[in-house]
Amino acid sequence: MTAAARHTLLLVDDHAIVRQGLAALLRTEPDFTVCGEAGTYDEGLETVARLKPDCVILDLSLRDRSGLEWIREARAGGFDGHILVLSMHDEALYAEKALAAGAQGYIMKDQAEEALVEALQLVMAGDIYLSPAAAALLDGSPAPAVEAGDGGFEGLTGRESEILYAIGGGLSTREIAEQFGLSGRTVDVHRANIKRKLGCNTLAEVLLRAADYKRLRDTHPAPPTL
Question: What structural domains does the chain harbor?
Fold first, then answer.
């Protein structure tokens, strides 16, 4: 990717030393360039409206107001870029809230050095980033729903298998969310994980694999849980 085609990033964090550290970490990355920084809630909103970055790396705990509120206000104001939350707060408590507010990823600050670039790459590719621990917490159903070797679906968790089956049945995100008592954003997380695990590049491929999976399940139902 050329310098002119780099993805632009806005850093919104009320600690200058954190912004400096992130900028230094990203300086050598060929796919990204930091186009701006903001240290307060209002400055962040003004800067995102002015610069229109491809992605915002956002601290969840801005000194003056909540990062969750910032996400909602930025979305309401028309920002349609990506938002990756970087936080010290327990992802078990806040990851789903951040996704529901409109973020595409959640990463702990102590994981940034190892995982930030990977998270940005996934988010910019249209996927959703969560740590394995956070993804498992949102899933809530870790056991596979099909036997290993059944059509290449053995890597899916139980909840992912249920959602794939529902997709194969033609259900929309809203209908799936209602069926399983999830938020639409959580369903999107599972869709992104399914897409990645099945090696699909497009939504059409996911739909085809979902139809195959539904036929497999309808023909060979999973054994009952004892």
Answer: 3-130 (3.40.50.2300), 140-219 (1.10.10.10)
d(CA 154, CA 1): 35
- pLDDT tens for each residue of 20-63: 999 999 998 999 999 999 999 999 999 999 999 999 999 998 88
CB atoms within 10 A of CB 181: 7
**Residue positions counted in the chain:** 226
The whole model's pTM is what?
0.66
**Rounded to an integer, what distance in angstroms lies between the CA atom of residue 34 and that of residue 136?**
31
Q: Give the span between the Cα atoms of 100 and 137, in whole angstroms.
A: 15
Task: Report the half-sphere exposure of 164 (CA within 13 A, side-chain side).
Answer: 34
Instruction: Render 188-202 in DSSP notation, one character per residue.
Output: HHHHHHHHHHTT--S
pLDDT in tens, 159-186: 888 899 999 888 888 888 888 888 887 8
